[in-house]
Amino acid sequence: MNVTLLTVGDNVVDRYLQLGVLYPGGNAVNVAVHGRRCGAGAAYIGTVGTDVAGRAVLDALVAEGVDTSLLRVVEGPNAYADVRVVDGNRVFEHGDPGVSRFRLTPADFAAVAAATIVHTGECSMVEDQLADLSAAAPRLSFDFSERPDDYIDTYAPLVDIAIRSLPSATVEEAEREARRIHALGPELVAVTMGAGGAVGLRGEQVVHAPAPATAVVDTLGAGDAFIGRLLTGLIDDAPLDTLLGAATAYASSSCASFGAFGHETSLEQSTAPLNPIHKGVDLS
Predict the structure, then answer these.
(1) Does residue 269 surpass a pLDDT of 80?
(2) From 52's CA, which of 36, 135, 155, 176 has a CA 20 to 30 Å away?
(3) pLDDT tens-digit profile of 50-92?
């Protein structure tokens, strides 16, 4: 596989205790899967545990055609987050990072340099390695989510593509925030506004893409779906208005089902005996 989209960092299983099921997820994993579904050659670098949760994440990545040749399997529990859905909106409760923190290796940085776009984010715990990622990546994308201004001010100068979440913002507020972040250095800034759609800024061009009407079941992972589609459009060099509209529509469609991208597993299975977990598979 020619890797055009490489994601680095977090994975997790989202445990829906009310429903008795879990789904694989995490920003870096979700972006890789959605990028692959949208046509990118996607690969993921991260760490999974040796429990059922780790198996669920790895099996889902392999099933989705994401290259896992640089994924690590580390003895111990996988990261998890407990989720409630209230009126269609996901609410995170207790969670644990498990074995998900890791250091990038020379082989990782070689893969970073060879990719077209590299993506990571505020949940990936790689801030202390971000300067090295920035130096190696042809284009570095970063999800700032809802982090405060001082966090954004620190790390935005290191990235080329910045994604920001302001769920309650007006279009005017989102545009102001996009201009503020753009002035810090990123060439492209996208600000998502939940049901309000998204604002994108590149150079002097500003675009607003409204979100289409959608029957919302679960908003978990919608922002990551937006990023996966956005970055795939950037790889294909699509115009800003085209790719922002496509990313917003794609993110809205992801809200029609539970979990970030499917692959449901019963929580009862998490207590079943576990065969030795398989290693990463190079699907190139």
Answers:
(1) no
(2) 36
(3) 999 999 999 999 999 999 999 999 999 999 988 876 665 556 6
Distance CA 147, CA 186 (A): 16
For residue 147 the two structure tokens come to: 């982090």
Q: Which residues touch 238 (CB under 8 Å, ≥6 apart)? A: 246
Q: Can you tell me whether residue 215 is helix, strand or coil?
A: coil
3-state secondary structure of 117: strand
Residues 119-163 have pLDDT tens digits of 999 999 999 999 999 999 999 999 999 999 999 999 999 999 999
Residue 59, number of CB atoms within 10 A of its CB: 17
Tell me how far apart the alpha carbons of residues 257 and 250 are, in angstroms, rounded to a whole number. 13
Query: What is the pLDDT, as a whole number, of residue 270?
Result: 52
Domains of the chain and any CATH numbers: 5-271 (3.40.1190.20)
If you count them, how many residues does the chain have? 284
Q: Whose CA is closest to 47, among 22, 21, 76? A: 76
